[in-house]
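Customer escalation, tier 2.

The customer says the design service returned an amino acid string that "doesn't look like it belongs to this structure." They asked us to rerun it and document both sides in this ticket. The original structure tokens are below, unchanged.
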């Protein structure tokens, strides 16, 4: 599948709103425009003032449009993992004609059947991911189209979130004059960007350190298995600096960015800089080490809370370790501090693209990569969320035309239909050569879906 075309990623963060425009050609993603605007109307990663947030989104989009020389009409938006629930879902349908091959419409129908869940009124489905299809008892099928069968099943993973958060995000984007191509849960998108195939398979932890909150996401067997959100982030560090040094929030933020260290042992007591103190006519000299001690104290508190929750599910035993993302991850020395506190290998992911070499751009870039990598079957399943088949590959790929005509929308080429065959797997057969240690790692998170 060649998902060539233009993708626009939107990251609505507590501190800043970022828009990235990328062009994908023959598997290569090239960033052609970037917009960044100071956030307004957000608190702890959640939109609390729709009008103010919409205005900030518009400003960031205009910046990206000017640099990319295109008109942006659709965006792929990342949403925080606040109160996200992960559960199994399954659906089954009878194929209308047993002599007919399974087609796009059948995939959409079985996905819709899997979405029939008993759900509280305050929650809404965020996303659904197909894990496998089963045709007449033959399991492990990734794409059932072209096969012949009388019973089609889909086993998948369902993500639900608070209706208020989802509604406010949609409303703000629509008020900014944009359409939503896809809503993606941030840790799920980040896994496609910051982890390699082995790290996603055997298990890793992504800790997204934003301005308003810190989110830990556990990825195992290429799936998002667990999320934890701590309502403390980079803004709390800034507040600590402001209170301790008796300076304004603006000055505290500048001090953190220009002189801050996450690990006080790496800061120098000899390096000093002036700080404008409220009520004093002359600046006070503060050492780099003293500032680092303030920053480290808050980071210790954040990491300690995250570690407690990760220890409960033994996630820190996963071989992939921890990958830090988000703006706070740019603080010098944070890798050593986190590695010491968590007791595992830690690294910071920084995009390699020119103009984006800062961890704060990770999420906006991640939602683009996530959407671009979706298969035709995954897009068909997701279309069942809205019932909108016009944008699905059921029409676009069959006719060989672009998915949408507007300038900033993705285009895709038709792919030939290949008839597939599958063999049933014995229910109790097990590979005797499989190592027991790998089995234990693979089974770490099975109890989440029991």
């Amino acid at each position: 599948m060649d998902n060539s075309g233009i993708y626009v990623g939107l990251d609505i963060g507590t501190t800043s709103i970022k828009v990235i425009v990328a062009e994908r050609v023959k598997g290569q993603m090239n960033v052609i425009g970037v917009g960044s605007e100071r956030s307004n109307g957000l608190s702890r990663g959640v939109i609390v003032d729709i009008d103010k947030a919409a205005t900030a989104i518009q400003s960031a989009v205009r910046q990206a449009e000017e640099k990319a020389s295109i008109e942006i009409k659709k965006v792929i938006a990342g949403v925080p993992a606040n109160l996200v629930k992960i559960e199994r879902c399954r659906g089954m349908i009878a194929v209308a004609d047993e002599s007919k091959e399974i087609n796009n419409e059948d995939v959409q129908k079985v996905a819709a059947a899997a979405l029939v869940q008993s759900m509280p009124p305050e929650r809404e489905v965020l996303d659904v991911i197909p894990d496998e299809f089963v045709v007449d008892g033959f399991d492990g099928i990734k794409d059932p189209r072209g096969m012949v069968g009388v019973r089609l099943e889909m086993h998948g993973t369902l993500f639900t979130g608070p209706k208020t958060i989802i509604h406010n995000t949609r409303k703000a984007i629509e008020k900014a004059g944009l359409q939503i191509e896809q809503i993606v849960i941030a840790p799920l998108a980040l896994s496609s960007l910051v982890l390699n195939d082995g790290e996603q398979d055997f298990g890793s932890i992504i800790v997204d350190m934003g301005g308003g909150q810190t989110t830990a996401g556990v990825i195992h067997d290429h799936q998002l298995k667990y999320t934890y959100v701590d309502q403390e982030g980079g803004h709390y560090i800034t507040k600590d600096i402001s209170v301790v040094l008796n300076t304004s929030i603006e000055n505290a933020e500048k001090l953190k960015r220009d002189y801050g260290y996450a690990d006080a042992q790496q800061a120098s007591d000899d390096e000093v800089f002036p700080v404008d103190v409220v009520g004093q006519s002359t600046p006070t000299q503060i050492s780099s080490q003293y500032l680092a001690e303030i920053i480290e104290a808050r980071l210790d508190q954040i990491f300690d809370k995250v570690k407690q929750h990760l220890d409960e599910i033994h996630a820190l035993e996963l071989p992939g370790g921890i990958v830090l993302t988000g703006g706070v991850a740019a603080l010098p020395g944070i890798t050593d501090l986190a590695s010491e506190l968590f007791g595992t290998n830690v690294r910071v992911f920084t995009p390699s693209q020119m103009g984006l070499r800062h961890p704060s751009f990770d999420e906006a870039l991640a939602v683009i990569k996530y959407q671009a990598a979706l298969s035709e079957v995954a897009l068909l399943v997701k279309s069942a969320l809205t019932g909108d088949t016009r944008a699905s590959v059921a029409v676009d790929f069959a006719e060989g035309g672009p998915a949408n005509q507007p300038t900033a929308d993705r285009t895709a080429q038709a792919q030939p239909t290949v008839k597939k065959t599958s063999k049933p797997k014995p229910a109790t057969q097990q590979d005797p050569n499989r190592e027991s240690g790998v089995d234990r790692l693979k089974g770490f998170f099975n109890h989440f879906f029991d």
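Tier 2 assessment: The sequence is consistent with the input. The two ends are 34 Å apart (CA to CA). The first helix runs from residue 50 to 68. Sent an explanation to the customer and offered a walkthrough call.
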